[in-house]
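Hello,

Following up on my earlier ticket. Below are the two sequence lines again, exactly as submitted.
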Amino acid sequence: MTKDKLLERYPRSPEALLALLHALQGANPGQYLLPEDLALAAAHVGLPLSKVHDAVTFYSMFSLKPRGRHIVRLCSSPNCHLAGAWSALEELKRHLGVEVGGTTPDGLFTLELTSCLGACGVAPVMMVDDDVVGNLTPEKIAATLARYREGR
Amino acid sequence: MRRIQVLVCSGTACQSSGGERVKRALVEAVADRDLLEEVQFVDTGCMGPCELGPVVLVYPEGTFYVKVRPEDASEIVEEHFLKGRPVRRLLWTEGAPAPREIPFFARQKKIVLRNCGAIDPERIEEYIAVGGYEALGRAVTAMTPEEVIAQVKRSGLRGRGGAGFPTGTKWELVRGGGSPPRYVVCNADEGDPGAFMDRAILEGDPHAVLEGMAIAAYAVGASQGYVYVRAEYPLAIRRLETALGQARKLGLLGGNLFDTPFSFDVEVRIGAGAFVCGEETALIASIEGRRGEPRPRPPYPATCGLWGRPTLINNVETFANVRHIVLDGPEAFAAVGTERSRGTKVFALAGNVRNTGLVEVPMGISLRELVVEIGGGVPAGRELKAVQIGGPSGGCLPASLLDVPVDYDSLTQHGAIMGSGGVIVLDDSSCMVNMARFFLEFTADESCGKCTPCRVGTQMMLGILERIVRGAGRPEDLVRLEEIGDTMKRASLCGLGQTAANPVLSTLRYFRDEYEAHIRDGSCPAGVCPNLVRYEVVSEACRACDACRRACPTGAAQGAPRAGPYRIVDELCIRCGACFDTCPFEAIRKLPRGGKG
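Thanks for your patience. The regenerated structure is below:
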């Protein structure tokens, strides 16, 4: 969908800003917001560009830097911590070869930390895009990443 | 009605452990044996015991299967559905096939979660079949808005999101807060680490929330509502959107509901990863498309909320309670709970506890009943040390306070809060100083930075705590922590900063000796803080395999292969834990530094 078409689906009002930014970000392969996206959004909802930039930099889910095709978010909250999230993090770093915030050279994955995903019953937990993966073990991490690598 | 109903949990936790694959396997196995006419499948919301997922409940007899794998499907169909013999190895407890016989379920009282795990949240017909939207119909056709408010006030319902403000009073304030348009907002920005009751309600019974909102809208005189959900909950968002579409289609949302002049519709707004947006004024700013920063109150949203209009903001669980008050009457609602905390509360149990998951209990039961009897206590061989309740705004209560009743006022009195209902159970392997540091790290990160006490205070406290867990604590640190905490409590702009010090202050109150051991003796009694432990080889378990010596980067692990137990020279040890992680025989243990093994 072109960005113009995408814009049409959102009301021309500031209250549409966050939803519009989510959509624009998702429409870019690198899952980030380009400078022209911010300008488009500002013009569409009728806010100064500075206000849009203000909001974008406030919320942790918006990125102004290119990211991978899939975002791997490991929960870093206390319950996951108690269940061994840090070994899971080491495992993810080792597998992906990147630090937190880094993107793999093939552009497939970005590794991030997130606050509680609300799936503490199956801690430690990560989310790959919209999929929640719990009870993380080294094997499960490897299998999950492999599945995304193969594009399934 | 078919002979057998198979309820498969499709909540986030069970899905993440393969619930969908289990359902597909069951459907295939049923089809293979030509039983599709006799067996009905229902995808439900969360049934509660999340760590046992995927869970499957089979009616009419109510057999509860746990940790079901796709490979188990044929056996369940063959043995149970065909021959009538439950598969014993998949039952939670051998002797108790049905939920009502399992203590985890038997001790609960489900009002809010009544439909959660019992109906398909994606089919409005199922919600209507169990009395859904009846309360809304009764409210708008047979009651005046004032009567609805009076009922909610009489019920004694208090906000389930944290502060516990009387719900009926809030509704009254909004109704009298100024001329229309007025708005109703559902706060589903559940961000407390360890809290997942709102996610479960939205995923398992979204219509109950929408119905509660519609009743509230009728009472306060609003015609537009918003649900603000955090973006981390994609499944909840999807189910909510589905529910909205279905309710509109059946005319249960939209114009002239139940052929009355009352109109009400709801839109979903999605957050973008900012914890502070759970604070009501920040949430309003975020819906309006701005940075989610709080502003000073008053004016309260009841008079000056969304776009400056009177706005009612309640939490998910609060709205989900409303229909029961209208349907069963305020007296029935108030009969459960305590004098000042009426009704039930949903808690999310997690941490070092046997039965993690979602439970609903009458207010006023003791922490012991909640954590030990329903939660099953800490895993074998461990001792319960503390219960963290209320998340980053709450506090840690020690095991000696297990008899404290779980209600708003008792918890506050002891330095914790009800909060949204996240309960983290900690056993003796947890370091309380480290736990406090963990929460401060969270609030320091999530502080929006607008007001100084919170922005600087959280950083200062975090700095001190990091110093203490590193072994560089100073004697005056504890008093400093209390001073900064006290200032933040009194001077911060919003609830985030006002309560951010609670995890530290409550652990200082009950576990001061642990802080002192870190500072004075350079020792972490729980053996958690890396700089404050020492490693020791358990001679009897050591097989002299040489793995630790090879892993050790400083030559502290010493010995020769097959020549008696190895040893670790404390002076050379940098406490990296490589030996501990490597040892295949669990022959290396962590001890508090300076302590005796």
